[in-house]
Design brief:
The chain has one domain: TIM Barrel (Alpha-Beta Barrel). Helix content is 36%, strand content 16%. It is globular. The chain starts with 6 loop residues before the first helix and ends in a 14-residue tail after the last helix. The longest helix has 24 residues. α4 crosses α6 and α9 crosses α10. Strands 3-4-6-7-8-9-10 form a seven-stranded mixed β-sheet. A three-stranded antiparallel β-sheet has the order 1-2-5. By secondary structure, it is of the alpha/beta class.
Length: 337
């Protein structure tokens, strides 16, 4: 048995390690000479601090298509969405959980100074704009970007200061582990994020119940319920928010009932939320190979069983016309602000 992560304590430490508040700097991963570099389709850019990702709607057989962030970005940029989208990715160098299937080497999640660099949002934007044919989407990922929630408003402010709001869309992800967004951002920073037309956020549910969640993250099971509470707070704020879920589980016992209950919980947050939630197929990248064992191999199979249940639930709970809407057409309005 691996030791359970003390999420709150680790989060506080890594926030301190990954944020220079006085100079408005974020500790960002440098991909050069790392195991993650081996999985990149094109070499790192922006002096090693960035990478180009081609987001694709196409997924494996049996898995729902993934329109994120393609459709939200294209709506904001007033362009026609295609099957792929080029994005400039920057990755902060800290994460408080250790998902066994993470495509990022764990050394790049622990503020390792040999593989990271302090930079401001302005410096990252300069690197981005200095390349030939820069993508119109900047993806702030991790790691766990919300250990340093200031990163998003700093980047949005920098884009706005250069009058590029109609030309650059910002996308960020969040593992729903902390309340740092509300604890450390000012009201004006939160308002700027909510009001930004060129920003979207995806939150990832790391499993469909406490057992799968703890297995995936090494965090205590009660943090699974915290994920729903934090997502509800984003809904009430009115942020353009979406969700992922990973369906890996160490056991398949009662898996149908467990996935059904997960969908029930999503609908308790908002009846339409399952239509804004994309199951992510866990695949094996270079850093994952050494982590594979018999249980993890079984979890890869169990996700195929779970996604079949998910697909049936979506078909049973939503009409054809609802399922055929683009993901940006699915309203999560609560009427509460």
């Amino acid at each position: 048995m691996q030791k359970t992560i003390d999420t709150d304590e680790v989060s506080r430490k890594l926030r301190s390690d990954g944020l220079d508040l006085e100079r408005k700097r974020i500790l960002v991963t440098n991909f050069l000479n790392t195991d993650q570099e081996k999985d990149l389709k094109v070499p790192p850019n922006c002096e090693g601090l960035g990478r180009i990702r081609h987001f694709s709607c196409t997924t494996s057989a049996g898995w729902p298509p993934n329109p994120l962030p393609i459709e939200p970005a294209c709506k904001a940029l007033d362009t026609v969405p295609g099957k792929q989208l080029r994005a400039q990715v920057f990755q902060n160098a800290v994460c408080n959980w250790r998902c066994w299937y993470c495509y990022v080497p764990f050394v790049l999640l622990s503020a390792h100074r040999r593989h990271s660099q302090w930079v401001t949002a302005a410096e990252l934007l300069d690197l981005h704009l200095g390349q030939a044919n820069p993508p119109q989407v900047i993806d702030l990922t991790g790691g766990q970007p919300d250990l340093t929630p200031e990163w998003v408003p700093w980047m949005l402010d920098e884009i706005r200061s250069r009058n590029l709001e109609k030309n650059i869309y910002v996308w960020s992800d969040d593992n729903l582990s902390t309340d740092f967004f509300w604890r450390y951002l000012s009201d004006s920073q939160m308002s700027r994020i909510v009001d930004a037309r060129n920003y979207g956020r995806v939150c990832c549910f790391k499993g469909f119940d406490e057992e799968s969640f703890s297995f995936n993250t090494r965090a205590d099971g009660h943090f699974f319920s915290r994920q729903f509470k934090l997502f509800q707070r984003f809904l009430k704020l009115g942020i353009d928010v979406y969700a992922y879920v990973t369906l890996t589980s160490p056991t398949a016992e009662h898996i149908s009932d467990r996935v059904v209950q997960f969908v029930d919980r999503l609908q308790q947050l908002h009846p339409n939320l399952p239509l804004r939630t994309i199951p992510l197929e866990v695949q094996v990248f270079t850093p994952v190979h050494p982590r594979l064992n018999e249980v993890n191999e079984r979890a890869l199979y169990n996700q195929e069983v779970a996604v079949e249940v998910w697909n049936r639930q979506i078909e049973e709970r939503f009409s054809t016309s609802e399922r055929n809407k683009t993901i940006t057409e699915i309203s999560l309005s609560t009427g509460i602000r």
